[in-house]
Amino acid sequence: MKKRGLILTSLSLLIGALAVTGATSLAAFESSKREIKIVGTNGMHGSTIFLSAGVWEDDVEASFHLFSWADGKETIWLSPVGKATENGYYIFELDTKNYTNIIFARMDPAHNAKSDFDQNTNYLWNKTADLTFDASKRLYKITGWGAYGQKVSVGEWAVYNDN
What we know:
It is a single chain. The chain has 1 helix and 10 strands. The protein is of the alpha+beta class. The strands form 2 sheets. The protein has a 5-stranded mixed beta sheet, with no helix packed on it. Strands 2, 3, 6, 7 and 8 form a 5-stranded antiparallel beta sheet that branches. Strand 2 and strand 3 (76-78) form a beta hairpin. It is globular, with a radius of gyration of 23 Å. The termini are far apart.
């Protein structure tokens, strides 16, 4: 009986050690995933781009997205990675080495997949014109609704201050 108890105790200790090692490895893995995030203009190939939703912000039920494309590359569809609490800007991370063509979109939050980004659906509420990313101006400000009956809103690039 002593031998069986010793084996069970040893087995419990081994399982506990494996669980702790596994948890530590998982935590290290989770931490390393955050480290490869492209942040700021100092990122290897990317930039953080900010959207000031302006008049779009009047509708709290909307979702905001960034659509980007490049010749010879697949189009990409991004949701914000967050919203800055100090200024309310939506934050997007984009591989600006390969993608510089951008459209921001304001959409129905229940139908906001890339496949719903179509001028002819009711899911796309508003969008910007085709924009070109400028690394010296990482903030895009929506300044107006645009022409009546059109889904294209107006805006402008501005310098983003990290302070």
